[in-house]
Write a structure and sequence with these properties.
- Helices cover 49% and strands 8% of the residues.
- The protein is built from five helices and five strands; from the N terminus they run βββαααββαα.
- Strands 1-3-2 form a three-stranded antiparallel beta sheet, with no helix packed on it. The protein has a two-stranded antiparallel ribbon with strand order 4-5.
- β4 and β5 form a beta hairpin.
- α1 packs antiparallel against α2, α2 packs across α3 and α2 crosses α4.
Length: 259
């Protein structure tokens, strides 16, 4: 008897399913097996053909008793025998097509895997490009501006920059990037004018903090011996002609030196 798909939409196991049709089923959540949705149309055709085959056999059985109108099955043959053979051939054809459909599904899964790998590779390349771009923005907006703000005030700018960069952040506003500085709580710091601290203002502040003072050059001229704020002016030498008494004193000193 032909396998009845209508009576076997779901089965507990595949033992009762013909070998050629086991691929039409997939496991379900109840622990059994159910027909695959993608084979629904083909199963309907097979079921219809099975019914036609049963009808043909019944008609063949009755053929000896009465004449049967076989015109509805004319596409499969002009006699009971040829109709039976035609239906069987059609079933074989559909079975082969379904097997090919399963292979096509496997090929589709492979194509999806290949696409996923390609997409992952492209995503990795994009992330690397973004990382390089962020590095360039960091250098242009933070490192270079800090170097400009430090100038020649530091003993070695490369020693000051890492401490300043710990508090530096890149801020984006409507597609424009700027440098801001934050406190210990990561809150943006503002200057006396109400605007965020500039790199110059932040470096000025650092140079006055005891922790960072050794990184900056001294503001007192080296070797002058002068105290900050003390006057370095010397008394101006006296000029003009000597008086008569000064001239007499000079003459007496010359006479004393000759004795």
């Amino acid at each position: 008897m032909p396998f009845d798909f209508e009576q076997n939409q779901t089965v507990d196991n595949l033992d009762t399913v013909p070998e050629d049709f086991k691929g039409f089923y997939t496991e379900n959540n109840e622990g059994g097996f159910a027909l695959r949705e993608e084979f629904g149309s083909a199963v309907k055709v097979i079921t219809g053909l099975n019914k036609s085959l049963l009808a043909a056999r019944k008609d063949a059985k009755k053929a000896s008793e009465s004449t049967v109108d076989l015109s509805p099955l004319a596409e499969y043959g002009d006699s009971v025998e040829t109709i039976q053979a035609g239906v069987a051939a059609k079933l074989d054809e559909l079975t082969s097509q379904l097997k090919g459909g399963e292979k096509a599904k496997i090929d589709l899964d492979k194509a999806r895997d290949d696409w996923a790998k390609t997409a992952a590779k492209e995503r990795e390349g994009l992330e690397n490009s973004n990382a390089q771009l962020r590095g360039q923005i960091h250098k242009l907006l933070i490192t270079d501006q800090l170097k400009s703000a430090i100038g020649d005030r530091a003993l070695n700018p490369d020693l000051v920059i890492p401490f300043a960069e710990e508090r530096a952040r890149i801020q984006e506003n409507e597609g424009k990037f700027s440098v801001v500085f934050v406190d210990e709580d990561n809150a943006i710091r503002y200057g006396t004018g109400g605007a965020p601290l500039t790199p110059k203002e932040f470096v000025d502040e650092m140079s006055g903090i005891d922790k960072y003072k050794p990184l900056f050059k001294s503001t007192v001229p080296e070797g002058s011996g002068a105290r900050p704020g003390a006057s370095s002016r010397r008394p101006a030498p006296t000029t003009g002609d000597k008086t008569a008494n000064e001239k007499i004193a000079d003459g007496l000193r010359q006479l004393e030196s000759r004795r």
